[in-house]
Design a protein that fits this description.
Structural class: mainly alpha
Strand content: under 5%
Largest sheet: none
Helix content: over 70%
Shape: elongated
Distance between the termini: 15 Å
Number of helices: 5
Length: about 130
């Protein structure tokens, strides 16, 4: 995997911290919570997209695609977080409550589980690949 520079690593860590703060602040119904989360999600996913695998191991490539899918879910969570603040889509109240309101939590959970799995497995595969060399 391509290593991040010191500045990119800092942006990566701050992005993750802002995601946690934004998700936590939404429990207190802070109006600024989606903005905090969105900035963090953009920073986090941008830095993860800069890390690419240049090897030929199919397993690591597959896990990398799973990681990028989880990044997409993080960004979808940000959009749904904004949509949960009101009814900007003009849906009926029942439809809005059924399909949009607070559904960002589900996409965030999916993203977090995929992220944890892929990061753990990529580390394991990279260690195994390093032992072969």
């Amino acid at each position: 995997m391509k290593e991040l520079t010191r500045a990119q690593n800092f942006v990566f860590l701050i992005g993750g911290l802002l995601m946690v703060v934004g998700a936590g602040a939404s429990m207190f119904r802070w109006g600024i919570a989606p903005y905090i989360y969105s900035v963090g999600a953009l920073a986090f996913t941008a830095m993860q997209m800069l890390q690419h695998y240049e090897g030929r191991n199919f397993t690591i490539r597959r896990l990398r695609r799973i990681m990028l899918l989880s990044d997409l879910f993080f960004l979808v969570s940000a959009v749904l977080m904004f949509a949960s603040q009101g009814n900007p889509l003009g849906l009926s109240q029942v439809t809005y409550l059924q399909y949009v309101y607070q559904r960002w939590v589900v996409t965030l959970l999916i993203a977090a589980v995929l992220q944890l799995y892929s990061v753990h497995r990529i580390n394991h595969e990279l260690e195994r690949e390093a032992k072969k060399l």
